Amino acid sequence: xxxxxxxxxxxxQSLEMTVDLYLPNNAAGPLPTVVRxxxxxxxxxxxxxxxxxxxxxxxxxxxxxxxxxxxxxxxAQAAYPAYDWGSxxxxxxxxxxxLDYLLTVPELNRDQFIVTGHSRGGKTALLAGALDERxxxxxxxxxxxxxxxxxxxxxxxxxxxxLITSPKRFKSWFQKDFGKYGNREDELPFDQxxxxxxxxPRLLLSTDALxxxxxxxxxxxxx
Length: 223
Prior knowledge:
Oligomer: single chain
Helix content: 10-25%
Number of helices: 7
Strand order of the largest sheet: 1-2-4-3-5-6-7
Distance between the termini: 39 Å
Number of strands: 7
Radius of gyration: 17 Å
Structural class: alpha/beta
């Protein structure tokens, strides 16, 4: 069974975000729940068959993830102009807003929420889990540069900090000054193992394809 809800929140309830919740029929609750960054119905059947509830949310309602090189002020940035967050920070905040709602659903186990996502969604899931201790398990998938990958340990053909923060690519994902560390990674005050450590003592499962060199599986193993 799918429930679609539209959450309203923020200053004067100016922000809206869709959350889809898929519940297995006739399952005994309360259920563990997988929360995915981005609307996607496809995982629901398999997860429901295995006794999980599945939820996903429309992170683009808070930040539209503009095309490469575009400089767009998203709804969340407009609502909170004093904040200097990039897209990934906004999307991670959205995961917590989705969780605010999910914690009110009686069929769900309040102590068994899992946050996950792939690629840019994996970066988002890792940050959401690091910042919100209500997620009992954090599962970034193929999150690479700016996610579970290491800036100081780079495998062959990996995406670099300089590349990902280029104004022609994904600078908008990050805090505006982050790109200054391109080719100066040794000067970073911390690396991504610190972000992963913020999940402890909760569960962290970082998954990657060894052939996805762009996502730096070597560096992910290092962190």
